[in-house]
From TrEMBL:
Record's bilayer topology term: Peripheral membrane protein
Domain ABC transporter as annotated: residue spans: 20-269
Annotated localization: Cell membrane
PANTHER family attached to this UniProt entry: DIPEPTIDE TRANSPORT ATP-BINDING PROTEIN DPPD, OLIGOPEPTIDE TRANSPORT ATP-BINDING PROTEIN APPD
Species in which this protein is naturally found: Homoserinibacter gongjuensis
UniProt keyword Transcription regulation present: no
PROSITE patterns: ABC_TRANSPORTER_2
Region of interest (Disordered), residue spans: 450-474
UniProt keywords, alphabetically: ATP-binding, Cell membrane, Membrane, Nucleotide-binding, Transport
Primary location recorded for the protein, binned into one broad class: membrane
Keyword Membrane: yes
Entries under InterPro entries matching the protein: AAA+_ATPase, ABC_Ni/Peptide_Import, ABC_transporter-like_ATP-bd, P-loop_NTPase
Name listed for the protein in its UniProt record: ABC transporter domain-containing protein
Protein family (similarity comment): Belongs to the ABC transporter superfamily.
Length: 512
């Protein structure tokens, strides 16, 4: 890909007094492991009608810098700077109340993770309207008209219907556009956009970039955080390259992209994919560790995945049905890659969920290695789930925030590296993962944990003899197997994982 730095001819080039001035900004976080600096000695200016792009690899401190500019650095953060000002106001002494007056009205923020940033329990229209209401903008009817206009401006189809939907009912691209609409609702003087076009298709990306360029022409200042150097070249006036929390290069975008001085900047530009880079390596080689005891599967000529006539619809506001996928069919042979492309809301993610059997199709079926897949009961499908994996669109919302990375990986490896067990005979414990304990109820503290009484357990009388089960792991605090009751010996929590449950006899005495 050839990077071009051409921008609209009417883009302002005049030098004005900076709206934002940052000098020697250092941001660190104090944790149980000690104090760690994420951003060190950062300095830049941002004037009216100018766009500053901050680029760099993941973990370089770009998002922390953006959050610091709006007082959202977070708990345990320590912010030091020689100067940190907005239109002459010293931001270092701002209270939370003053920050709330700034956010939305003077500085709009488009955060990176739309699903996490939007309230999952409220329609996106209410989320956008809240910014208008908190700053006293118009009456209810005027705010609702403004919400519809904003959604239409950022390219959301059927804006009135989408405004009544919750974030989980929208595609990733539609959620991102709703977040952008919320950021520009009050027409702020400065907009900080953290990866604003990552989840958007090409046509909508062009529409959003045109909207940002129009804001620049009206004198709005932009801070653009992006991995897409083509977007940066089109929109930015200045570029700031960060690596490991430090600035390695800073200057006009034409100079930096045309003649980069730092080796890291040159490596970033060289890694931009394009026609000339096809079949060439863009980054150092990374070899995944081999799975133990896993031999190559010979090609038997059977398609690994077959989808035939898939259809899926959902209920929308007012009870109307919305067809997300209609008559989708494809085959995926072994060792081949199938690309599914389309604009936001076209049904790509829904198709993937149907293939994974996380959604049940209204019509059609999916076969895995020539065998039925979507038509199976989950208990029969579970031993084969290690054969098909998924990389979800929203990493942060896909992980349990109470689990450590080690727990997440152990949970995946527990199913992937062990052979599936046979279904146990009646009377033994079975459950939702590898025929372990079947659990029911909510997590409780040890003092309140209690097993289901013997009189409720599968119709057996209190005097019925019970054979004990071996200790197993379960999720909630009260667990059952088919012919016995269980009690958890420790509470559920993020650090120790799920509690251990031991069997109980009819008299209530527990066995270890």
């Amino acid at each position: 890909m050839t990077l071009t730095t051409e921008r609209p001819a009417d883009a302002p080039t005049r030098e004005t007094e900076p709206r934002i001035r940052v000098r020697d900004l250092t941001v660190g976080f104090t944790t149980s492991a000690g104090h760690r600096e994420i951003v060190r000695d950062l300095s830049f200016d941002l004037s009216s009608g100018r766009c500053l792009a901050i680029v760099g690899e993941s973990g370089s401190g770009k998002s922390v810098t953006a959050r610091t500019l709006v007082g959202l650095t977070g708990r345990g953060a320590r912010v030091d700077a020689t100067e940190l000002s907005l239109d002459g106001d010293d931001l270092r002494g701002f209270t939370e109340r003053r920050w709330r007056e700034v956010r939305g009205r003077r500085i709009g923020v488009v955060l990176q993770d739309a699903l996490v940033s939007l309230d999952p329990l409220r329609p996106v229209g209410a989320e956008i309207e809240e910014a208008l209401r908190l700053h006293g903008w118009g009456d209810r009817r005027a705010r609702r008209r403004r919400v519809t206009e904003l959604l239409e401006t950022v390219g959301v189809p059927e804006p009135e219907r989408r405004a009544r939907q919750r974030p989980g009912e929208l595609s990733g691209g539609l959620r991102q556009r709703a977040l952008i609409a919320s950021a520009i609702a009050l027409d702020p003087e400065i907009v900080i956009a953290d990866e604003p076009t990552t989840a958007l298709d090409v046509s909508v990306q062009a529409q959003v970039l045109a909207q940002l360029a129009d804001m620049k022409r009206r004198g709005v200042s932009l801070v653009l955080i992006s991995h897409d150097l083509a977007v940066v070249a089109h929109l930015a006036d200045d570029i700031l390259v960060m690596r490991q929390g430090e600035v390695v290069e800073y200057g006009p975008v034409r100079d930096v992209l045309a003649a980069p001085q730092h080796t890291y900047t040159r490596a970033l530009i060289a890694a931009v994919p394009g026609g000339h880079t096809r079949d060439t390596r863009l980054a150092p080689e990374f070899v995944l560790p081999a799975f133990p005891d896993r031999a190559a599967v010979p090609d038997d000529g059977v398609a690994l995945v077959e989808a035939a006539g898939l259809r899926k619809s959902y209920s929308g506001p007012g009870g109307a049905r919305h067809v997300a996928v209609d008559d989708v069919s494809f085959t995926l042979p072994r060792g081949r890659t199938l690309g599914i492309v389309g604009e936001s809301g076209s049904g790509k993610s829904t198709t993937a969920r149907l293939v994974l059997a996380l959604e049940h199709p209204d019509a059609g079926e999916v076969r895995l290695a020539g065998r039925p897949w979507t038509g199976l009961q989950e208990s029969r499908r579970r031993p084969e789930r290690h054969r098909i994996a998924v990389v979800s669109q929203d990493p942060l919302s896909s992980f349990d925030p109470r689990w450590t990375v080690e727990q997440i990986l152990r949970d995946a490896l527990d199913g992937a590296l062990r052979a599936p067990r046979a279904r146990p005979a009646s009377g033994t414990c079975w459950g939702s993962s590898r025929w372990t304990t079947r659990c029911s109820g909510a997590c409780r503290s040890p003092s309140r944990a209690a097993s289901v009484s013997a009189s409720r357990s599968r119709g057996h009388s209190p005097g019925s003899p019970r054979s004990s089960c071996s200790t197993r792991r379960c999720r909630p605090s009260t667990c059952r197997c088919r012919r016995r009751s269980w009690i958890c010996s420790s509470p559920c929590n993020a650090r120790s994982g799920w509690p251990t449950c031991s069997s109980r006899t009819t008299s209530g005495s527990s066995t270890t």
